[in-house]
Amino acid sequence: MPSEKFNHLILLIGTNSLPNFVVADYFLQNNPDIRTISLIHSEQNFLQAGTNTQAENLEKLLQEKWEGKHQPLELFPPCKKSHFLM
């Protein structure tokens, strides 16, 4: 892992959220400075499916896995702002 630490992780949520989970999980394990994770997703339209559900599911999964194991963390899906303490 590079020596540069960062405290804000931005994830672009697609229809398969597993790669985002792997990245978030890796950095939460290896970078104690992370305080904020932004989950950027798309809205549904006539050309594509939206990824709001994937962003919400990823938010829940990260909360469940990291609650009590990491310092306070904020997840920001664009549709809402949620806060939780770990």
Write a structural description:
With 86 residues, this protein is an alpha/beta fold. It has one domain. Helix content is 33%, strand content 20%. It is built from two helices and four strands; from the N terminus they run βαβαββ. A four-stranded mixed sheet has the order 1-2-3-4, covered by helices on one side. Strand 3 and strand 4 form a beta hairpin. Helix 1 runs parallel beside helix 2. The longest helix has 15 residues. It starts with 7 loop residues before the first strand and ends with a strand. The C terminus is likely disordered.
What is this structure, in a nutshell?
With 86 residues, the chain is an alpha/beta fold. The chain has one domain. It has helices at 18-30, 52-66; strands at 8-12, 36-40, 73-76, 82-84.
Described by the principal axes of the CA atoms, the overall outline is: elongated
Radius of gyration: 13 Å
Mean pLDDT level: 80
As residue ranges, the low-confidence spans are: 79-86
Number of strands: 4
Spatial ordering of strands, largest sheet = 1-2-3-4
> Sheet bearing the most strands, described?
4 strands, mixed
The amount of beta strand, in percent, is 15-25%
Essential attributes:
single chain, elongated, alpha/beta, 2 helices, 86 residues
Set out the fold topology:
Elements: E1 8-12, H1 18-30, E2 36-40, H2 52-66, E3 73-76, E4 82-84
Parallel strand pairs: 1-2, 2-3
Antiparallel strand pairs: 3-4
